[in-house]
Specification:
The protein is mainly alpha-helical and 107 residues long. Helix content is 44%, strand content 8%. The chain has a two-stranded antiparallel sheet. Strand 1 and strand 2 (9-12) form a beta hairpin.
Length: 107
């Protein structure tokens, strides 16, 4: 059986089955469960501390006293200026401190 959406792109039954399994394999159930958890408790997704730059954060204290094992930074307006690729001078010390405390695999 061969269905044609466009003369250049035949969609065969085999490719439909492969597409289906590719879509099923790409479902991130952990992310969906986390999203559901945030939907039930939205306060966990809101910031609890505000600092001028990431260099003002005590990462050692976060790890030792709060049990935090990893950090995630948004690139734009956090470690770089918008649409830039180099780390902003005010963020470079904080980024290095986070890497020193948590390691490259957890930042």
């Amino acid at each position: 059986v061969c269905f044609r959406l466009h003369p250049l792109f035949p969609l065969t039954f085999v490719s439909m089955v492969n597409w289906y399994y590719a879509m099923v394999q790409s479902i991130n159930t952990k992310a969906l469960l986390t999203l559901a958890s945030v939907a039930r408790r939205p306060y966990i997704a809101s910031p609890h501390v505000h600092v001028p730059t990431i260099s003002d954060v005590n990462y050692q204290s976060m790890r030792d006293h709060c049990g935090i094992r990893a950090v995630i930074f948004d690139k734009d307006n956090t470690i770089t200026a918008p649409y830039e690729t180099s780390v902003h001078e005010r963020a470079s010390l904080g980024l290095q401190n986070a890497l020193d405390v948590f390691g490259h695999e957890n930042v």
